[in-house]
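Notes from hallway chat w/ T.B., transcribed later so I don't forget. T.B. wanted the structure written out for a chain they're using in a teaching module, and asked if we could keep both sequence and structure tokens in one place. Agreed to drop them here.
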Amino acid sequence: MIYLARQFSAVLMLTSLSASTVLSQSPPAEGARHALIVCGLTGDAAHRTLFSGTIETLYAALTAHHEFMPDNVTVLWSDAKAEGDGAALATSRGPATREALAEVAAGLATKLQPKDVLWVFVLGHAHYDGKNSWLNLPGPDLNQTDFGNLFAGISCREQVFFMTTAVSGFFIKPLSKPGRVVISATEADREVNETIFPHKLAAGLNEPPPYLEFDLDGDGRLSLLDLYLWAARETAQEYATEMLLATEHSLLDDNGDGRGSEVQVDFLSEELGGRLTAQRKAPLVVSGDGAAARRVLLSYPSSPPSPDVTKE
């Protein structure tokens, strides 16, 4: 009886939303979907296990749930391959050197068509020298400006960059351009500690909570904005649970101004560093950072049936 009551309540919650704010979950638009997963040197054995697990989770999520064909997912994994590695590492094209990244980026610039999609994930370690943020790669490291230049020539309808290392906020400005979503795990500041965000992000893509719990902006559909908000909330929650000072604050830029925003502050409770209270409800993001991410719809988990949902 409790289960049925909860299900009935969930249906009422969805159908009671106004037609102006409830939007239908649409299938991905036509066009090939490409992804690039990059991981620099992981360091010790424990971090190899951590990052390899997260990369396998990302690969499984993209290929099983988010319409990416395995042949269109490129992995650059910088550690030696080992027995027992999963499908993602087994298909790796090799280490994420500067040269390898340049080659892959140039290939994508040539291959991508106007209707195509590109998602780029960058994991691993990084450091800050007081002026630049550097991805720690095999061979010479790569700073934010050079990384941004590699992808300056990319042109397709949907571009999403997930920069999930420490001091990754510095990558937002050189990557920013109209029509592109750039997400970082940290602010453009001295947030130099190892990040939790990439592992929460992978979990949200592969095993998200039930639909209504994942729809954090309450607009009746699941979007890249919901994924970002959920990963940011789960990251903040882990710091709070462990009673640790939060050393990472993720940012999102999708209006092309090169300045990331902590969009999540309006969706996090005060205990997690946000502004959400019983009296202050989360807003519907219709402009500024987050608006474009809200238009990037996810196909997993599937939409609950509702005859009253209308399409934007």
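Follow-up for T.B.: The CA atoms of residues 127 and 177 lie 24 Å apart. Might be a good example for the class.
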